[in-house]
Amino acid sequence: MAEKILEMRNVTKRFGKLVANRSVNFDLERGEVHALLGENGAGKTTLMNCLYGIYNPEEGEILLHGKPLKLSNPKDAIAHNIGMVHQHFMLVPPLTVLQNIVLGQECRITPMNLSRARAQVEELCEKYHFQLELDTKVADLSVGAQQRVELVKALYRGADILILDEPTAVLTPPEVEGLFEILQQFVSMGKSIIIISHKLWEVKRISNRVTVLRSGEAVSTVMTKDVEEADLAAMMVGKRVSLEYEKTPVTTAQNILELKDVCAKGAHLASSLKHVSMHIREGEVLGIAGVDGNGQLELSEVIMGLLPTQSGSVYYRGEEITKMPTRKRIEQGFAHIPEERMTQGLVMNFSASENMIINCYDRPPFTKNHLFNSRQVKENGKKLVEEYDVRPRDPDALARSFSGGNQQKIIIAREFAQDPRLVVAVQPTRGLDIGASDFVHQKLLEQKEKGAGVLLISADLDEVLAVSDRVLVINEGEIMGEFVPGEIDYTEIGLMMGGTKRTNSKAGETA
Amino acid sequence: MICMNFGGTQVRVERKKRTESPLFQKVLGIGIALLLVILVTGIIIALSGKSPIAAFQCMIKGAFGTKNSVAETLIKAVPLLLSGLGLTICYRTGLTSVGSEGQIIMGGLMATIVGVNLGGLPAPVVIPMAMIAGILGGGIWAGIAGLLKAKLGVSEVINTIMLNYVATYLVAYLVDGPIQEAAGHYPQSDLLGKNAWLPIILPGTRMHLGVILAAVSVVLVYMLLWKLPLGYQMRAVGNNPIAAKTNGINVARNMVLAMFLSGAFAGLAGSVEIMGIHHRLMNGFSSSYGFDSMAVALLGGLHPVGVTIAAIFFGALRTGANTMQRTLQVPVSLVNVIQGLVILFVLMQALLSRFTIRIIQRNAKEKGAKQHA
Amino acid sequence: MLDIVSGFLEAMVRMACPIMLASLGALFTARSGIINFAMEGIMIMGAFFGVYGSYLSGNPWVGALLGMLGGLAAAVVLGIMSITVKVDQVVAGTGINVLFLGLTSYLCTVLYPDGQPSSVEAFQSVEIPGLSSLPVVGVFFQQNLLVYLAFLLVPLIWYLLNRTTFGLCLRSVGEQPHAADSLGINVNRMRYIAILLAGILGGLGGAALSLGQVSVFMENMTSGRGYVAWSAVTVGKWNPIGIMGASLLFGGAEAVQLRLQALGIEIPQQFFQMLPYLLTMIVLAGVVGRTVGPKAMGKPFVKGER
C-alpha cells in the first residue's frame, strides 16, 4: 500500500444552520489521483476550501504526513505544499503571467527582482512541457492557457498536493485531453492530485480512487477500477434515477421562432454568433448543447432582444422582430429563465411577490388606471408560491432568503404565469439538486405540452438529451450540427462540441 | 465582547443575532446611532469647557420653545425635506448624487429670474411660473449628470460635485454682473416682485406656503415610489440594474428620469427658499441645505415619512444651534459635527442593532441583568 | 512677456502641489479598491493641524507632521467605515467630510485664545542654486520644500506601484481581492495600509495648502480640493504620472485666474474658478469608458463570497 500523505478526519463545517460537511473522512496517497465526486451542493468545494485554509472547519482534524496541521489561511496551506486551482480562476487579469505566478510570495517595498523567478518558472515549464508567454497579460490568454498559469502557479509554490476544482468545466474536449496528460505526468513525478468533479466519465477516466460526497457526507471511498459509472451515479444521488421523460412528438410544422443568418458580437471572439440559422416549432423543446462560453449566452440574449444583431434577422410567428425591444417581446409571450439567477433573474432585496411581477408590473391587474396595486402583487405572490411549491411559503420574504432551488421556482412561477408562447431557458438547473432539477424539467415539458416553443440551453449534455425533441450543437458561435436524441452516440456529439461539423446531418425532421 | 466598568456597574456589549422584524431592527439601529451622536457631541462640548446638558437644553428650547422658534424650525426643514425627498428617489434608483446643493442653487436662480422680471403678474400666475422655472432649473442641472452616467458611464458622483461648483460660480458671476441689483452695492439680485413672494401662513412668523408644498411633496414621493409602476421600475433598477435590464426595463431612461426628478425637488427647494425667505438671489443663499439633505435622506431611511422626521430634526438642529451660539457661545459649526456623526453612525446602524448592551448592576440591591437596548 | 509666463508657471506649480499630494495619496486607496471620497475631510484636517502645529511650535515642519497626523485620523475613520463596517464608501466619505469640516471650524474657536487662528510660521521657498537662475523654468526651482517633495513622490510612487512586490500586492487587491486572498495576501490589511498612506499624504496636502500657500487656516479653506484630488486620480488614469498632469491642469486653472486678475484682463474671475470643474467633467466624459479603473473599486471584501 502506498504512503498516506494526507488525512482529513471527521471534518465538519457549518454555515449558520446549514451543515456543509458532516464528519467527513478523506485521505490521499502519494502519487494518486483521488476524485471527489458529488452533485452540485454536495459540499465538495467546501471540503477542499477547508483543506486549503479558506474555511476553518468547526470539528475534525487534518493530518499531513501523520502530523496534525493547523490551517488558518491559504498561506499556511501553501507553506505545507498544498496547491489549489479554483473553478473560478484566482488570477489578476491586468498583471502578466509571471507577475501572477509570483504574486503574494512577498510584499516588500524593495525593488522587485523577477529574474530568478523567471528562471525557475521557465525551468518548470520545460520540465512539464508547458508553453507560456511569461510577459503576456493574463487578460489576453485563452481559458485553457489561464488554467495552465494556475497550474504553474501552484507548482512554483512547491505544491506536492494539488487540488483541482471542476477543472474541465471550461475546457473543450481536446483541452481536456491535454489537461489529463499533464495530470498523468504530475502523478508520475510523485505528486498527488485531488480532482473535484460531478462528471462520471471524467472520474472514471482519470482517477485511481473516488470518494463520493452526498449532502455533505462522505458516502464511500472506492477504487475506481472496481466500479462502473452506473454504480458511481447511484452513490452520488442516493437512488438510481433515470433521466427519462415522456414526450409527445411534435405534430406541427408551425415555427414559433426563426433565426436567419444571425451574427452578433459577443464577450469574446469565440462566443460571437457567426451566421446562426435555426428555428423552434410550437410544442417543441429545442436543446442547445455545447461547452460553456461558445455563444449560448449570446444566442439567448439575441432572442430576448438584450444583444443587438450585427446582421441577419429574427422572426417570431412569422413576423420580423430583429429590432424589437425586450419589453415588447415579453409582452408578446417570451419567457426567459436567465443563466444567472441572482444577478439577472431576481432583485434580491425585493420580496418574492415583488419579484414575481417584474415581467408584468405595468399591466393589469398589477397596474390599473396608471396606479400600482400592491395588494394584487401580494395576492399573486401568495397564489404562485402555493402553485409552484416555493418553500418557505412566504411571499413577503426577501428573494435573497430563499435557497437556490426555490429562487429558481420563483423565476419559473413568474415566467410561466404569463402563459408564454416561447420559453428561453439558459442553464435552468445549474446548481440545483436532483429533485429541483426534475421539477424544472417537468415544468418546461408542461409548457411544451401547452404548445409553447422551448429553447433549452445547457452545458449538461444529459439534461439536453433527456428533455429535448431536437438538439443543435454550438461551438465558437457556430451551429455544428443537428440531431435527435438517441440518433447518434456521445463520441459524435463530443466531436461536434469540439468543433467538427456534422456532415451527414439528416436535418432532423422529427415530426 | 467588550466589558466596561462604570463605578460598580458593569456594562457588557455583546453581539447577537436578532430575530425581531427588520423595521424594528432599523428603528432600533437608528435610535442607538442617535444616542451615540448625542454622547460624542456631548463629549466634544464638554471638552471645550461648556456644559453639554445646558447646551442641549438650550438647543431644544431654541428649536421648539416658542411659536416663532417652531416656525423657524419648520421653514428650515422645508428645503431639507424637499431636497431630501429628491435624494430619496435618486438613491432608491441606485444613483449616488452629491449634487443637491448645485441643483438648489440653479432652482433658486431660475425662480429669481422669473420672479424679478415677471413680478408684476398676479400672484397665482407668477408663483407657479417661478416654481416651474426652479423645478426645471434643478431638474436639468441634475439631468446632465444623469445623462452622462446613462450614456457614457461617467460616475454621477464626481459630476454632481463638479456641477455644484459650476452652479456656485455661475451664480457668483451673475449676481456680480448681469443680474446684479440696480443699486449695484452688493453682489445680489434685485428683490423679487412682491407678487412672487410666498404668502405667510402663520402671521407674526416667517412660516410661508412652502411648508404646505413640502407636505404635499411627501405624499407625492410616497405615491411615486409605491403607488406608480414607475416607482417599482426605479426601485428595481436601484436594487439590481442587471435583473431590471434582463426583464426589459430601460435602465438608462430610469436613471436619467430619477436624476431629473431628484434635481426637480432640489430646484423646488431652491425656489421656495428664494421666494419664501430671501426674496432675492445672493451667494450662499442655500447655506449647504443640499449637503445636509443627504444626511436627512439617509437618516430618514429613504422613506418619505422618515425623511420628514429627519428634516424636522435637522431644521431644529439649525435653529437650536443658533440659539446655543447666542446664549452659550458654543460655535454653530457644531451642527456640522453633529450631522457628520449622524451620517456615520446611521450608516453603522445595521451593525449597531446587532449589539446588545447588558447593564449588570453589581452593587445595587436588585441583583440581575437588565436588558437595556 | 517672459515675466508673465514664468509668473504663471510658478503659480501653477505651487497651486498644483496640495492637489498632487492628496491625489497621490488617493491613488493608493483607488488602486487597493477603495473609493476615497473622504479626501476633503482628510485635507481639511491636514490644513487645520498643520497651522495648529506651527502655531504651537513656531516650526512649519512640526506643523506638517501634525497635519499628517490629522489627515491620518480622518483616514482611519474612513478605513473603519469602509473596510471593517463595510458601508457605502461614497456616503461614508461625505459624512467624514461634513464631520471634519465642522470639527475644524469648531476647534478654531475653541483652540485659539481669540477664537481666530493667527498667522503662523509657514514654509518659505528654497532656491536651488544654479537651477533657479535659469530663464523661465527657473521658477520651478524657487518653490517651497513641499512642492519639491510632491514632484519627487511621483517617480517614487510610480516605482512603488509598478516595480515592487508591495505594488503588485496592492494592485491585485484592488483588481481581484479573492485571488489575492487565495495567495495569502491579507486584503483588508493592504487596504488599511493604503488608507493610512492616503491619510498621511492627504494631510500633508492640506498642510501644503495652509502652510505652503498662505500661512493661516480659514474655515472650509480646502473648498472642494479634496474632491478635485479624487477626480484627478480618474482623470490621471490611475497612475502617478497622469496624476501629476491632472494636478498641473487644476493648478494651472487656478493660476490663470490669479494672473489674469493681476493683469487686469476683463474676463470675470468666476469663469476661471469654474474652469477646473468643467475641465474635470469634460475629461472624464472623454476618458471614462476607454480606460477601466480597478475592478473591485468600492466593493468591500468578504471572505469566501464572490
From TrEMBL, chain A:
Keywords: ATP-binding, Nucleotide-binding
Molecular functions per Gene Ontology: ATP binding
Pfam families from the UniProt entry: ABC_tran
Gene3D superfamilies assigned to the protein according to its UniProt record, in alphabetical order: P-loop containing nucleotide triphosphate hydrolases
Start and end residues of each ABC transporter domain: 6-240, 257-501
PROSITE patterns in alphabetical order: ABC_TRANSPORTER_1 (PS00211), ABC_TRANSPORTER_2 (PS50893)
PANTHER family: CARBOHYDRATE TRANSPORT ATP-BINDING PROTEIN MG119-RELATED, GUANOSINE IMPORT ATP-BINDING PROTEIN NUPO
Name assigned to this protein: ABC transporter ATP-binding protein
Organism the protein comes from: Pseudoflavonifractor gallinarum
UniProtKB/TrEMBL annotation, chain B:
Transmembrane intervals: 27-47, 74-92, 104-121, 127-148, 207-225, 255-275, 296-317, 337-357
UniProt-listed InterPro entries: ABC_transp_permease (IPR001851)
Top-rank taxon: Bacteria
UniProt entry keywords in alphabetical sequence: Cell membrane, Membrane, Transmembrane, Transmembrane helix
One Pfam family this sequence matches: BPD_transp_2
Main location (coarse class): membrane
KW ATP-binding (keyword) present: no
Topology relative to the membrane: Multi-pass membrane protein
Subcellular location: Cell membrane
Protein name: ABC transporter permease
Organism: Pseudoflavonifractor gallinarum
Lineage summary: Bacteria, Bacillati, Bacillota, Clostridia, Eubacteriales
UniProtKB/TrEMBL annotation, chain C:
Domain of life of the native organism: Bacteria
Keyword set includes Nuclease: no
Subcellular location: Cell membrane
Cross-referenced InterPro entries: ABC_transp_permease
TM annotation in the entry: 12-30, 37-55, 61-83, 90-112, 140-161, 192-211, 274-293
Principal localisation: membrane
Key words of the record: Cell membrane, Membrane, Transmembrane, Transmembrane helix
Topology of this chain in the membrane: Multi-pass membrane protein
Membrane recorded as keyword: yes
Name the record gives this protein: ABC transporter permease
